[in-house]
Amino acid sequence: MLKSTFTPIFWVLTPKPNPQNIPSKALTRNFFTNSTPLVRHNASLNPATPSTPASAYIHLPFCRKRCHYCDFPIVALGSASTQTHLDPRVSNYINWLCREITATKVNQPASSTPLQTVYFGGGTPSLVPPALVSSVLETLRVKFGLCEDAEISMEMDPGTFDAEKMREMVALGVNRVSLGVQAFQEELLRSCGRAHGVLEVHEAIGVVKSCGVENWSVDLIASLPRQSSEMWEESLRLTIESQPTHVSVYDLQIEQGTKFGRLYSPGEFPMPSETQSAEFYKMASRMLSDANYNHYEISSYCKSGYECKHNFIYWKNKPFYAFGLGSASFVGGLRFSRPRKVNDYINFVQNLENGLVDSSGDGHIQGKDTAMDVVMLSLRTAQGLDLRSFQESFGGSAVLSLLEAYKPYVESGLVVYLDEQRRTIRIDDLNYSFLNKPNTEKRVAYIRLSDPEGFLLSNELIALAFGVIDSWKDCFPYQEAEAT
């Protein structure tokens, strides 16, 4: 079953027992852990013509304290720390962050490919003073350029900002807020080690709305210790009543090395069972869909037109920059993770400035690895896997192998085949002989997972595709297709 961590751009596929009818040879693997997404860049194989990123993730690691479920690279400032403009730990880090941005090699001048999205994640970015956020944005603008209408997102926690700070952030260009609510019950917030309470949740929602932030998201966590169905329903109801334009719903992931990892085991009391977790997911899908939120990605819901543009860079497997502690970038086909400890990160920046390290690749990537990444990311979305693009990149035989592998799951309702008009193709129209004809791919244009049943088994269904791709005798030649 799906397990996700709590930042919209991070998630984990965790190994689970194979359910009935899922081949035991199917593979699972981790991705988007700890920091920015850890997948390979879907770039051209020709190093002379690499794709240039138009997005940047910025890691601001500061928190008041570490939550009990968190294994992200953070710097805990203390529970009372909300005024950080005089804290040298913050200003020094921002200085090194800007130096990293400045020292990063680029293939083209800033005016040719300005940034279209910037995402401030953490940590708790809203703890950072606006003046320091301004210096980061200005450094990005000088180095890469920044579109006038760029989506600039910031994760913000209740209790870490007021109306004045919110207005200052908006004046700097922040036009999308991801509000880390997590729960609307005091006892759940305390049990998670969150630094805020329910009163601060309502105050933060009021501030965001009063400051004219139209594009804002509420983050919720399901499957918390001792979380009941009634609690989860209340959190969803209060979220819907708050009228955000976006909602992210994450299933608790117990990570080793965290306080929860020491206290609890998945599926064992007081943790919800897998059946209960599945019911939480189905409840979210039903209630948010009934409230006219589009379920556009496994963990993401939005009002029409309010999809997170930055996250779509990940879903479409496009390159992006990343800067800061523990972050991972995808430039030139290279996955490059930065150190998770501050002193090691400072040494990295110094080496970058001295030309001793390079965070970008030469564009060479393996066809099978890229195919796995494309399938893995695409099947997390409601759009699903674009078979036209996949065929252009990997060939018709690759498409047929996936269609054949997923046919039983179309019959069971976990997988959906769509035509070019995104109409569902009935399984009666897809007999086995038809699937083996060369023109099959002309009929089936998309593969997607059903909502919510297919999404719930996304780990296993994606792992099935990994097994199919891994069995390819020859690595299909990969050529980057135009994203749709």
Automatic annotation (TrEMBL):
State a GO cellular component annotated for this protein. Answer: cytoplasm
One GO BP annotation is: porphyrin-containing compound biosynthetic process
Where's the Radical SAM core domain?
48-291
Q: Which GO terms describe its molecular function?
A: 4 iron, 4 sulfur cluster binding; coproporphyrinogen oxidase activity
Q: Which InterPro entries match?
A: Coproporphyrinogen-III_oxidase, Elp3/MiaA/NifB-like_rSAM, HemW-like, rSAM, rSAM_horseshoe, rSAM_sf
Note one Pfam family from the annotation: Radical_SAM
For this protein, the record's SUPFAM superfamilies field holds: Radical SAM enzymes
Its biological function? Answer: May be a heme chaperone, appears to bind heme. Homologous bacterial proteins do not have oxygen-independent coproporphyrinogen-III oxidase activity. Binds 1 [4Fe-4S] cluster. The cluster is coordinated with 3 cysteines and an exchangeable S-adenosyl-L-methionine.
Family the UniProt entry places it in: Belongs to the anaerobic coproporphyrinogen-III oxidase family. HemW subfamily.
- According to UniProt, the name of this protein is Radical S-adenosyl methionine domain-containing protein 1, mitochondrial
